[in-house]
Amino acid sequence: MKKTSVTKKIIKIAGLVIILAAFGITIYYLYNKSKEKPVVYLTEQPFITDIIKKTVATGSVIPREEIEIKPKVSGIVEQVFVEPGKNIKKGDVIARVRIIPDLVNLNNAEARVERAKIAFDDAKLNFTRQEKLKNGGVISAAEFQPAEVNYRGAQQELSAAEANLELVREGATKKSGSATNTLITSTINGMVLDVPVKVGSSVIEANNFNPGTTIASIADIGDMIFQGKVDETEVGKINPGMPLLLMVGAIENDTFDATLKYISPKGVLENGAVQFEIKADVDLKTDQFIRAGYSANADIVLQRVDDVMAIKESLLQFEGDSVFVEVEVAPEQYEKRMIKTGLSDGINIEVLSGLSKEDKIKVPQLSSPGN
């Protein structure tokens, strides 16, 4: 009995020890879990860089002057002698138009010829009669003169009526030689950009009520400009003469210099924002062929500073109207330091005073928890 009693006492003591040990372990675990873990902040240092403040204008590259060639007469396109991409000179023939005469004008022209013939025959008969009388000494030269003048006038009217009929029918007269309204010629030197008509197409001459049919569009592609738009929030910061850096969408890994020449005095509302048109002269490169209508973006340099000390703008913190950063003074110890800033490009910002290149600046966000 005594042995059994001792065994029970040992078991009770052992159980009590186990319970106390488990309780201690639990307390220790909960303590460690509730204990705050130290936070380690990343730091960054100031650096030397160029800061450029710019705005972006979207648009396209187009010829400075694009000329639309119109026919001088209405009719049907009989031949087309050029195609887009061909370089031509002033006076080169682009197309030939076959005139379809207006029936009213044709009828009037034919009637005019008939009347002129009748008047001419009558004047000629009278002229012949008066000439015989003058040669016979029956009438004087003064009496003969009216018949001669009338005859020459009738002759001239007949010639004019026949020329008018020829113009209505053919678009040209024999007296004009090679000149003809049926041949459409270029008015400038340049490249043919577009030929919107085909053989058999009807064309209309330009008049007071109709701009006429475009036979071809011609432009000097050696003289190109950038035409784009700038938002109203930026237009007050730009001026003619500013440099532009042009990036053409169709040409990768290359840029073109341009100079701002024109800013529209009037804005246009587009998609809820007021846009102002701008134009800039483009410095073309001899080894690059720029096609009319290429889309492009232009970076307009508003301000720039070179070789200045800067930090990332995300490191800044604000207190009222003041700007400060937190600078490391000892391991994991930081102090607030007011600084003076300058130009910003939206990513980096110039530091005018308050920092040195050796300073380590705390990144405001938590970045890497320590153990």
Return the CATH architecture of the largest domain: Beta Barrel
Order of helices and strands: HEEEEEEEHHEEEEEHEEEEEEEEEEE
Distance between the termini: 56 Å
Question: Helical proportion?
Answer: 25-40%
Mean pLDDT: 84
Low-confidence segments, ≥5 residues, pLDDT <50?
A: 367-371
How many domains, in number, for the residues?
Answer: 3
> Number of helical segments?
4
Look at the structure and name the CATH superfamily of the largest domain. RNA polymerase II/Efflux pump adaptor protein, barrel-sandwich hybrid domain
Count all strands and give the number. 23
Radius of gyration: 46 Å
- Give me the CATH fold name of the largest domain: OB fold (Dihydrolipoamide Acetyltransferase, E2P)
In terms of structural class, how would the helical and strand content be classed? alpha+beta
Spatial ordering of strands, largest sheet: 3-12-15-14-13-16
Q: How would the global form be characterised?
A: rod-shaped
Which CATH first-tier class of the largest domain would you pick? Mainly Beta
Largest sheet: 6 strands, antiparallel, barrel
Name the beta content range: 35-45%
